[in-house]
Design a protein that fits this description.
By secondary structure, this protein is mainly alpha-helical. It has 4 helices and no strands.
Length: 132
């Protein structure tokens, strides 16, 4: 993966997550007792930032830790859930109840970014195997 491809991949994550955000926002606005715009935006922003961070991290480690990149990816995905418990869970659970809408506010962007990230990194890891 070249630097140009790295930037393209991060822009792909941003583009697809933006589309998902606007769909999510549209559906959210039609629901009574919906989550606030700022919560939704923050959730997408954090997940996109983390997804791009993982892509950049694996790009930087591609030569030194080639055989461990899959494990690093899995550890980074687990780290995203840690971020959820530190950044989102306290606010969502402040009333003593984590509602389905609050959970989906984190989980939908997480899944969207994880799917995009997995596709990108799968191609990246395969290209490393084909390169040697």
């Amino acid at each position: 993966m070249t630097l140009k491809k790295l930037i393209t991949n991060c822009l792909t994550v941003i583009f697809v997550a933006s589309i998902a955000f606007f769909i999510h926002l549209f559906i959210n606005s039609s629901i009574a007792n919906s989550v606030e715009f700022s919560q939704l935006f923050y959730s997408y922003w954090v997940n996109v930032l983390l997804a791009c961070g993982v892509i950049v991290l694996l790009f930087m480690l591609r030569k030194r830790l080639k055989d461990q990149l899959g494990f690093i990816f899995m550890a980074a995905s687990m780290l995203k859930f840690v971020f959820f418990f530190f950044l989102f869970y306290p606010e969502y659970n402040s009333d003593g109840d984590l509602s389905r809408l609050e959970f989906l506010t984190f989980f939908i962007p997480y899944v969207v970014c994880l799917i995009i990230e997995s596709i990108i990194l799968s191609k990246f890891l395969n290209s490393l195997d084909n390169y040697n």
